[in-house]
Amino acid sequence: MISTQLLKELNLQVKYEYYSAHLYLAMAAYCYSIDLDGFANFFKVQSEEERFHAMKFFNYINEMDCTIDIQALDTPPSDYVNALDVFERSLEHEKFVTSRIYLLMDIATQEKEYATISFLKWFIDEQVEEEASFKAIIQKLKRANGDVSILYALDRELSLRVFTPPVI
Ligand code: MG
Fold first, then answer.
1. Cα-to-centroid distance, 149 and ligand 1 (Å)
2. HSE (CB half, 13 Å, CA atoms) of 49?
3. Which of 50, 73, 113, 128 is most exposed by smallest CB count within 10 Å?
4. pLDDT band at residue 168, thresholds of 50, 70 and 90?
5. Amino acid 123: pLDDT
6. In the chain, domain spans
């Protein structure tokens, strides 16, 4: 049985996952504006993944016979300084999302809501991967230390990322 509080937080998570998609599209737009099309591709694919996350919550709420509540999204920032700034801010955002998943898990655990605990486990693992992937790129950008040839090599690498819906 999903409590009112848990349902409220699950619905908020639909919003946060869609906001993530929105934020990463804004980051893709910034990357296009500085001619880093590979970086832009990376964020477009990331945005697709976030929509998939939102729909996982959407479908779960429905499966549990609860009412889905679609909410307005905030305007994401667009004041980025460079590629490193974009990735550092995306890591910050992922840490916030991880804290949200932990909050949901805390409530589900307190309420012994075993179905939701099981559902949330996928997201716990997913957040570890998300944070690791952003951290790895931040490390590369820091090591590049403004070297344009390394930046363009990384841009080519990121241009290869494609969206594959995760197998569950
Ligand atoms: Mg997500």
1. 31
2. 19
3. 128
4. low
5. 98
6. 4-158
CA of 148 from ligand 1 middle (Å) equals: 30
How far does the centroid of ligand 1 lie from the alpha carbon of residue 144, in Å?
28
1: CA distance to ligand 1 center in Å?
24
Average confidence score pLDDT of the chain: 97
pTM of the model: 0.95
Residue 20 alpha carbon to ligand 1 centre in Å: 7
Whole-number Å distance, alpha carbon 9 to ligand 1 midpoint, is: 15
Which pLDDT does position 165 carry in this prediction?
A: 82
At the second CATH level, the architecture of 4-158 is Up-down Bundle (1.20)
**143 alpha carbon – ligand 1 mean position (Å):** 27
